[in-house]
Specification:
heterodimer; A: alpha/beta; Rossmann fold; globular; B: alpha/beta; 39% helix
Chain lengths: 313, 383
């Protein structure tokens, strides 16, 4: 990114970051990797939800790095039960709070494996039952806690330990599952949004909106993973910005079934500028990059059409 | 107090209602369904002030109970068979989190072949999950045990979840007369749930952290100590229940039926015990010195009480409605271990798997074989 443009962005972010509460609700001594994108998402999400919040975690990186007994990074009540049941545990909490007449928020923090794959049923049930909770999926596009295995969120051609860049098969064969649309398809009363850790204010606002929304909210936040994506730990945010500029991570909201972009890159860049900074894509040939580019463009155009026509999802 | 003829499933539902749970999360499975249906009727008719959550699986049913209980609610669920198997990992998480959820289990066989009828394989397969397990034989006992289960589970020295296991169909779908306690009597016996710890933003705490090798074992030791304490607490709660409601089921752990002068006793759990009591009465009329030891509490296992009740017997016929494939019946394994230093011989009979009838003749066969044999017996009674 050109130096000047970068500076401009940093300046605008500083101003906006000042608008978020200064008090941290997750302590800095947690054990996340240097440059971890997911822990930034967690940090901003809990700021948006505020102190009057119960956090429900699934098994995964964020559970492991924040809760090594007898220490905890959490300054709000936090519960972890299992891998696939966070949405069900949240259902129970939301129900108990309803019975008690409590106004406490329920914030669920789960990775992509626990959301796209093993926890999908519990999440689907919880959304269908219309519980009042805000579910944030921190999406680092693979099972990182177990050592970088492919998930339903892993993009096509990405190399993981269970979809390696082999001589015969070149990384993951399938496309990434369209989770936000799957959740939006449940009901018009679900608030759905996508976010990117490079745009913390946008993410913060969406979580706040999700918390204030009466009923279920699903926010999927894109969070680069240093060891999983094989990137230097100092480019997490820069890479996340490139993902946005290359249209890889469109930022939108779906309210009452209608999709609206919250912002769009002014001058989109070709996807190879994003892909080739990452070890997980270093094996890509030109044909594969072109395939990814086509998929991104098609998806983008579909989203634009949905926005223009206001067709309900 | 009202006396009514009710289905045992309704007795469980009434038991739940009398205990005033705040949240009930359930998923249907035969033969448990009459329990949530009855509860739904209570809730939808405004007779029960409770949030009923119809979840999308048993895994989520118990997970939702966990969440609600952690947020300070009293919770209840019910399941059977595959549902309990699907809950398996949630069972361990619930007991590990020390959340005193109470669950009714309508005991049913496990697939394959698929079979909706009764045996104890489902709950026996969950015996190591850190749940207290009660096995009942009548509608009245099911109702009463529900009330006692909450009181035991929520005791601050215990804080463990509890299962009330009743035989699918052979009890869940059977109509029997039962006395229904007054609400105010139950209220004074079982005060509102006051958890020691909850998810409270005013007092934030971390529940369900990662326990490294330097702490995990300490958590397990505490659970085991709570289980051991439960042996005493269950007896105390049964005593208190007896004083207030004038009903008792042995000492809460086991019930010894006509064993004082007996040579031979049957050991069993659940509805087989009712049939066995009739068989014992009949055989005693013919001068046979036989009795029954009913195991009501299987976890924690009442080792001392069983030893005391069996040490003067010549032999025991253990009727297991389950099989640990590759070894033997689970109750038999326990009894054998209890009797390791005694002269009393234990014989093993596998009976009634997948709903096969256990008739008076089945029980008589076991008693006759054990009476006549001089050597240990391990048999499947296929009749």
């Amino acid at each position: 990114m050109p130096e000047e443009e970068n500076k401009k962005e940093i300046k605008s972010n500083e101003k906006l970051i000042a608008g978020m509460p200064e008090e941290e609700l997750i302590a800095s001594g947690h054990r996340a990797c240097a440059g971890c994108g997911s822990v930034l998402a967690v940090r901003h999400a809990i700021k948006a939800a505020g102190k009057n919040t119960i956090v429900v975690a699934a098994t995964g990186c964020m559970e492991v790095v924040t809760s090594p007994y007898p220490q905890t990074a959490w300054k709000v009540p936090w519960i972890h039960s299992l891998f696939e049941n966070a949405a069900a545990v949240a259902s129970g909490i939301a129900t108990a709070l309803k019975k008690q007449g409590s106004d406490t928020n329920v914030l669920v923090l789960v990775g992509d494996g626990g959301t796209f794959d093993i926890g999908l049923q519990a999440l689907s049930g919880a959304v269908e039952r219309n519980h009042d909770f805000c579910y944030v999926c921190y999406d680092n596009e693979a099972y990182m806690n177990t050592g970088i295995q492919r998930s339903g969120a892993t993009p096509q051609h990405a190399a993981t330990t269970t979809s390696p860049a082999g001589k015969l098969i070149h990384g993951k064969v399938e496309w990434k599952k369209n989770m936000p649309f799957i959740i939006a398809g449940h009901s018009e009363n679900v608030y759905v949004a996508t976010a990117n850790i490079a745009f913390p204010i946008d993410f913060y606002k969406k979580v706040k909106k999700g918390i204030e929304h009466k009923g279920p909210a699903y926010i999927q936040v894109y969070t680069p993973c240093v060891p999983g994506w094989k990137i230097p730990s100092n480019i997490t945010i820069e890479l996340a910005k490139l993902a946005y500029k290359s249209k890889t991570t469109p930022l939108y909201e779906i309210e009452n079934g209608v999709l609206k972009f919250t912002q769009k890159p002014e001058n989109p860049i070709p996807v190879d500028r994003y892909l080739l900074l990452q070890g997980r894509f270093k094996h890509l040939n030109k044909i594969e990059i072109a395939e990814i580019q086509k998929h991104i463009d098609d998806t983008w155009n579909k989203l634009l059409r949905l926005e223009e026509t206001e067709v309900r999802i | 107090m009202i006396k009514k003829v009710i289905e045992a499933s309704e007795a469980v539902a009434i038991g739940a209602k009398l205990c005033k749970p705040d949240v009930i999360a359930v998923y249907p499975i035969t033969p448990q369904t009459h329990i949530p249906e009855k509860i739904a009727n209570f809730v939808y008719d405004g007779k029960m002030d409770c949030e009923l959550v119809d979840v999308e699986s048993e895994h989520s049913a118990l997970s939702a109970c966990q969440g609600a209980q952690a947020a300070g609610a009293r919770t209840f669920t019910a399941t059977a068979s595959q549902g309990l198997a699907l809950m398996h990992e949630v069972l361990f998480a619930t007991s590990g989190l020390r959340l005193p959820v109470v669950m009714a289990v309508a005991n049913r066989a496990l697939s394959a072949p698929i079979n909706i009828w009764n045996d104890h394989q489902d709950s026996i397969s969950a015996r190591d999950s850190g749940w207290i397990q009660f096995y009942v034989e009548s509608a009245q006992e099911a109702l009463d045990t529900m009330i006692m289960a909450f009181k035991v589970a929520e005791n601050k020295d215990i804080m463990l979840p509890a299962m009330v296991c009743l035989d699918g169909f052979t009890l869940t779908h059977v109509y029997e007369p039962a006395q229904i306690p007054e609400q105010k009597e139950v209220d004074s016996f079982l005060p509102p749930y006051k958890p020691l710890f909850t998810l409270d933003p005013k007092k934030p705490l971390t529940m369900g952290p990662i326990g490294y090798p330097n702490s995990y074992m300490d958590f397990k030791l505490q659970q085991q100590q709570a289980m051991q304490k439960a042996l005493t607490v269950i007896k105390q709660v049964q005593q208190e229940f007896l004083k207030r409601f004038k009903r008792t089921y042995g000492n809460g752990l086991i019930e010894a039926y006509k064993t004082k002068d007996a040579d031979i006793a049957v050991v069993a759990m659940g509805t087989i015990c009712s049939t066995t009591k009739d068989v014992v009465d009949e055989l005693r009329k013919k001068g046979r010195k036989v009795g029954l030891i009913k195991i009501k509490t299987f976890r924690p296992f009442p080792e001392a009480d069983i030893l005391d009740a069996t040490k003067n017997l010549k032999a025991i016929a253990v009727l297991d409605r389950n099989i640990s494939l590759g070894q033997e019946g689970a109750v038999y394994s326990e009894i054998k271990a209890v009797l390791k230093d005694c002269k009393t011989r234990a014989d093993s009979y596998i009976v009634g798997l997948g709903g096969r009838d256990v008739t008076p003749n089945t029980i008589k066969t076991a008693i006759d074989k054990t009476s006549k044999s001089k050597n240990p017996i391990k048999e499947w009674l296929m009749q």
